[in-house]
Structures are given as C-alpha cells and as structure tokens.
Amino acid sequence: MGALMGGGVGLTIGFIFGSYSILRNGAGPRGFLATLSQYMISSAATFSFFLAIGSVIRNEGDIPPHLQPLSMQFASPLVRSRYEGAMRMRARWEAEKARQQSADS
After folding, report:
1. How crowded is the C-beta side of 21, counted as CA atoms within 13 Å?
2. Taking 60 as the threshold, does the pLDDT of residue 92 lie above it?
3. What is the Cα–Cα distance from 81 to 86, expressed in whole angstroms?
4. What is the pLDDT of residue 105?
C-alpha cells in the first residue's frame, strides 16, 4: 500500500516539478514528453521506495493472533520485550531452584 501511495504522490510531484523545470529551462534535446516522463518516473520510484519501506516498518508488528505464538518462537531474543525476557528468566531460575532442591534431597 505504501508503494502505491508513494507512486501516486511521486507521479504528481514529478509532474509539477518537471513541468516547472521544462517551462523554466526548456525541454532539452530529448523533447518535452521524454523529459517530463523522466521526472515523473524517477520521482515516483523514489517516493514509492521510501513509502514502501515505511509501511513495512510500521506494520511489522501487526501479526494476526493465530500466528503470534509461532512468530515469538522464531523471534530473536533481542526483539522480545523486557517483560517477556524477565518472565523467561524467572521461569528458568525457578526451574533451576527446583532442580537443585531435588538434587539436595
């Protein structure tokens, strides 16, 4: 969705700035249409790239509920929250205490 929005915005901005540049400096040796289309395409590609990256970053955490346990299983420890890390450490400590108590008795 970000790529589509970026493409639309980029085409519009490319049209505006390309038309202004052509009116101010002339079309050049390639002609009006080729110069304007180059402005529009390069602007659309740039905008769509950055908006696509932004939408991926923003929606990275929106995982459907039925896939959340699977994603947490394969996520690296650095990605998990502090609370979850603390709960895992507490569970490991309690398991270690229980193991030591069973070994002592």
Report:
1. 17
2. yes
3. 9
4. 73
